[in-house]
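Lab meeting minutes (informal)
Scribe: AK
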Amino acid sequence: MDDLRNKYLAAIADAADESALETLRVQAVGKKGEVSLKMRELGKMTPEERQVAGPALNALKDEINSALAAKKVALADKALDERLRAEWLDVTLPVRPQRRGSIHPVSQVWEECTAIFAEMGFSVAEGPQIDTDWYNFDALNIPGHHPARAEMDTFYMHRAEGDNRPPHVLRTHTSPVQIRHMEKHGAPCRIIAPGRVYRADYDQTHTPMFHQVEGLAIDKDISMANLKWVLEEFFSAFFEIEGIKTRFRASHFPFTEPSAEVDIQCSWEDGQLKIGQGDGWLEVLGSGMVHPKVLSAAGVDPAEWQGFAFGMGIDRIAMLKYGIPDLRAFFDSDLRWLRHYGFGALEVPTLHGGLSG
């Protein structure tokens, strides 16, 4: 027994890892281990021999088990010490910069437009993105043969056979919001209607889904002069350039009469667009006086009320202000693009604090 004790205690002390330790445990006190085999021999001994050998074997087994447990703890402590040394970190070093989220340029410009028009007394109106073709076309004096109503330009919702409900479309502009607002609140009113709109088009300056903000002002003595003032005030505030010149060109829209496309002053220098200077012009929106048929469709008496309306692309004016060359990049979810063109979460646009942060 002394030989077994010395043999295994020495081997346990020299064990390099838990795998070697488990091998020694099996060899010593496993079912077929040397100590276990010795204990099986007790049955062949005389009672007097068993009284001496039995306690001695049990003591040996306990001593080996205790040595195994102690060595296992020592190996675990050694592994922990090595891990702590390997994973050492100086907590006094500066922290790594954390990647932060950013506000999308569309969201930022949306808020900028809201802030500017709010200062001029406009409230925000909202409406459904899926609407009937009556609100999207008929109520806006758009005739049935108009190209905008063709399936190549407009997304129509599927209708089951026998469904007699009016056709529904993904709205092609936010003008239906104006109709719904006048139906509910009547006149006078002064609103903007920002939101998503949908058209079947896709290239560098067009995407199937984009964003618009439209404005509507209805009262008894509103004229094109009021429209011109509102737009010039907006452009000066939005581009943060005083005295931007505008040019109104006669045009035609079914929902306004007279109608005008609006250009702003600009110049091209070394391939860069500069707003508010030079002798060039850039088209930015469509506008006009609300057509009497549109007022009638919304339940407003055109003999008593009149007003103006305008509409512009939020994505487009964001591209102009922040120098973004491709509209499709707005919807690519490219984190590098978002980090470059995005805005901080606390850069809330206000007229007194600065729109662009």
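Next up, CB showed the second protein from the same session:
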Amino acid sequence: MSNYSAFSIFRHALSGNKNWSRAWRDPDPKPSYDVLIVGGGGHGLATAYYLAKEHDIRNVAVIEKGWLGGGNTGRNTTIVRSNYMMPGNTMFYERSMKLWENLSQDLNFNVMLSQRGQYNLCHSPGQMDAARRRGNVMRANGIDAELFDRDEVRRRLPYLDYSDNCRFPVHGAIFQSRAGTARHDAVAWGYARAADKQGVDIIQQCEVVGYLWEDGKIIGVETTKGPIRAGKVGLAVAGHTGHLASKAGLRLPIETHALQAFVSEPLKPLIDTVISFGAAHFYISQSDKGGLVMGGDLEGYNSYAQLGGLPIVEHALGSAKALIPSLSRLRLLRQWAGVMDMSMDGSPIIAKTPVEGLYLNGGWCYGGFKATPASGWCFAWTIAKDEPHEDNCEFTLNRFEHGYQIDEKGMGPQPNAH
């Protein structure tokens, strides 16, 4: 139950909201912690929360160079799903989906999960065969999946272009009914408040500029607020993973690229699901405010800037019009971008690093937001027990050295390094 009664909510509202207590503390850093998590986005906050809740490790700090949730957590298209098929990915993302389904209750904070389903459209017989194989793997692992032919897709999504001369002829779709969207800001706020209540310190405006070393082991970090010692340091910094790893002497098999997203002016309810299609790598859903939330492909160059170029704008909006012709006169309201750490096989890294005392959570490609709960859960397990859980045991760093890759880049295009 909420800590606030209906009367207290009314009383606070009449005060102009001046008397609300803080949702989480704003402490100064202590000299040392058992665990330091670098990165105050969804993955870092979730890791801290599960360290405290699941492993009773409460002397934990999350340090963030900017503001909480100001990175990729607040710069995505909010899609959650578990339609993966490669061993290593399949059950990890299903764990995440199951955590999503109880997350509002667990955090006592409404993350606005909307399981409206997702259609992955198929545009050739070959894509239908690939979707059939993916669906069979999912169903064999107890994950919901349905394959629809063209007529069923047309009955369910009548506003797509089914004309004889359409750019992307629809042959069918694979559908996951439990997929959907969640409110990205609410996820960060919910994990932050819950972690704070477990005793975790959340320290904002605190940038890591280096590491503290002792006998070849990392024993803390140098920050803009001074040195902070720790028994273990975990990195969960999304697109800046390679940058911070290099400060520890690690060269990672990842590239950082910008990924744009867009939202249109609001319109009456039209799209009550999530639609994606790999033929042009485009995805679209409708927000509670009525705007259409759209995403496209990566920028083709390496960048740490939360910006994007006009070619991708043209690509994404052209795909929207080709898919749903009735959107042709819709105005674009705003655009933004996140910085993605793209691994070379399309799958993440959740593991101890070769540097003693340093743990890595990165390489999320397009899967970062949907993985938030399981990422934090598994990273907390790995840090607490110094070994991976079975759900992240394949997400090792040395898999690239040994040539064992979890090649699921079919879930979205990868950098040119492939």
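CB comment: Residues 125-140 form the longest helix (16 residues).
No objections, moving on.
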